[in-house]
Design a protein that fits this description.
globular, single chain, alpha/beta, binds pyridoxal-5'-phosphate
């Protein structure tokens, strides 16, 4: 795909984000567009950076480590978010590389992240992933365990958790999953909500998303 195509799709997504905010009577500056660049190489990412996009999401530590140091050297104001599952043995690399981690979902990972955050003196934004559809193959804390897990993160591991993330089941309407995630966040005093992807970010914004993770609508279909 060409550079021009990449940034015109970005313009369309930005317009849709602003429209969704207006419809929801929300301030567009309260919604961060995370451009999900997984599987795309630097050639596809450069035009999106050139169009002033500064927040990017990746789902694998190794892929991000290979792609981003060079891009960030040229653009130090870029923020990199990890949106995919994280193995505890990669916590060290993840804390070094990412400004936000959207996939905190178990005690062993909380422990590993806490250790690295202290050691490296870094402060990544942390989101707990909620498995709102209770899908066995999917990562995330079950909704009924969310409050207790959050308390453990705070009290046992001294982690500052800023928000919740969810990925609704593919074959269901996303709205109820976004609403449930927003409700769990509200009762726990969490301000940030990472929810909404290319197909449903407007719905997510209507239900309070502060971070929408949009890949294919910006970069095109993944091969
Ligand atoms: C790939 C991915 C996205 C982006 O998906 P699109 O449908 O391409 O917008 C968002 N969130 C997560 C967790 C992903 O893995």
């Amino acid at each position: 795909m060409t550079a021009i195509a990449g940034s015109s799709r970005l313009d369309d997504v930005r317009t849709e984000v602003v429209r969704a905010c207006r419809d929801a009577r929300r301030d567009p500056t309260d919604v961060t567009l995370v451009a999900v660049s997984k599987t795309f190489d630097a050639d596809a990412i450069v035009p999106v950076i050139a169009a002033d996009q500064r927040v990017f999401g990746e789902n694998r530590v190794q892929e991000a480590k290979a792609k981003w140091p060079a891009l960030r050297a040229a653009h130090p104001d870029i923020e990199l978010h990890l949106i995919g599952p994280l193995q505890s043995n990669k916590a060290k690399e993840a804390v070094a590389l990412f400004d936000a981690i959207h996939s905190l979902d178990r005690v062993s990972l909380a422990e590993a992240l806490a250790k690295e955050i202290q050691k490296q003196n870094r402060k990544p934004l942390l989101f707990i992933e909620i498995n709102t559809g209770a899908e066995p193959q999917k990562a995330g804390v079950l909704p009924q365990n969310a409050d207790a897990f959050l308390t453990a993160c705070r009290d046992k591991y001294n982690l500052l958790v800023s928000g919740l993330m969810c990925i609704p089941p593919q074959d269901e309407a996303p709205g109820p999953h976004f609403a449930l995630t927003a409700k769990i966040a509200a009762r726990n005093g969490l301000k940030l909500l990472s929810m909404g992807m290319s197909a449903d970010f407007a719905t997510a914004i209507a239900l309070g998303a502060t971070h929408v993770r949009v890949g294919s609508a910006i970069f095109g279909a993944r091969g």
